[in-house]
Amino acid sequence: MKFIHIAPLLAACLIRPPADGLAADWPQYLGPNRDAVYPGKALTQAWPEDGPKVIWRKTKIGEALCGLVVSGKKTILFHEKSGQDVIECLNANTGETIWTNRYPTSYVDSFGSGAGPRATPAIVDGRVYTMSAQGIVVCTDMANGKTVWKVNTQKTYRAQDGFFGMACSPLIEGNAVLLNIGGTGGAGIVALDKTNGKLLWKSLDDEASYSSPVISTLQGKRRAVFFTRTGLAVVNPADGAVDYQHRWRARIHASVNAAAPLVVANRVYLTSSYNTGALVLDATPSGYRELWSNDTSLSSQYASVMHRDGFLYGTHGRADVPPEPALRCIELATGRVRWSENRFGDCQMILCGDRLVALMESGELVLGQVSPEGWREISRAQVVGSNARNQPALANGRLYVRNKNQLVCLEMP
Q: Which helix (H) or strand (E) holds 374?
């Protein structure tokens, strides 16, 4: 079995877009609304030939497969250095370290995908929530870097490493930290009290996936939507009661569910690979019904899919099996492929208006315009070097990207 990219699979209260539309933080996995869409000012300008302006660059950082998060003047870099998981708070304007919070780690990835944490932190109400590859969940005070509480989910709930370590990016809803940890005894999904780490509820026996949950309103009810190793689980975040489940996983054991689910109005979109494909369900007053499913429209191995005006944009194909993934636009309602930019490549993406920013695994950054009519490349530049598998963060007009050993902050005109 060969898997080479996990980080980005991985993974908060919904945060309203800024009233003036000029700037926005990136406080959790896939941004303010966990949908890889930046609600701030649209990116309109082409870059110089040598790429966007570098605000600052930080080298010799530790390994990780998770993304960065930004809130105000602070950004959180979660990485592994010298046998320790390090939660490091940086000045978002300069890259200088403000504080660090460390604890020992012994995680070793047996498939060679890389060391360090996989789950992207979440910043809520002056605290940062992280989960390590070994399932250690930590709440850290953003002001001083002190540990507020810590829970080892592998010990407490008998959660397992899985193929590549634990990777669910924390979702904070109300007073709960929601996680798919794959624990035993009905602890497939858990809710921890965000103030002290104590168990609020546990639900299901589903194994953990490499997907991270989202929060949405379905038929007027606030619901957490999980894509576990088994499939879809729609859960009441207040008590863990399960509204609906739908099995959606590959027939072979050597497979993962990785892309985050996407909820648009009352429609739920799931996408996987390994001859599984995509599925769209419609939440109706009488229950859930399937709109369409296939393995030919937009089947993503791990990269999450973005929505704009009834159309989905994402990569179709596996990163570890040729040909390279295609960049595609499909109709959400029908699955019809509107266009396909074949052999586009392996990347992590953010949508901003009709502009799409893609960080290629090679470290190239690509800016293009997307619409149902097609793709138009605007700019391309090498910015961070190879092994760039982490989800970038776009905050307050600046793009934060990293690879295996360096982090760069770029001005986005």
A: strand 374-382
Q: Up-side HSE of residue 234: CA atoms within 13 Å toward CB? A: 23
Q: What's the rounded Cα separation, in Å, for the pair 242 and 191? A: 13
Answer whether 0.70 is exceeded by the pTM.
yes
Task: Please give the Cα distance from 103 to 85 (Å, whole number).
Answer: 6
Query: pLDDT under 70 in the chain at which residues?
Result: 1-23
Interatomic CA distance for residues 105 and 85, integer angstroms: 6
286: left (phi over 0), alpha (psi -120 to 50) or beta: alpha
- The Cβ of residue 203 has, within 10 Å, a number of other Cβ atoms equal to 21
Count other C-beta atoms under 10 Å from residue 16's C-beta.
Answer: 10
Q: Taking the CA atoms of 94, 99, 101 and 105 in sequence, report the sign of the dihedral they define.
A: positive
What integer pLDDT is reported at residue 228 of this predicted model? 98
Tokens of 257: 């569910």
End-to-end CA distance of the chain: 42
Q: How far is it, in rounded angstroms, from Cα 43 to Cα 393?
A: 14
| Residue 280 CA to its chain's centroid (Å) | 20
Q: What is the pLDDT of residues 346-403, one digit of tens each?
A: 999 999 999 999 999 999 999 999 999 999 999 999 999 999 999 999 999 999 999 9
Fold annotation for 7-411: Methylamine Dehydrogenase; Chain H (2.130.10)
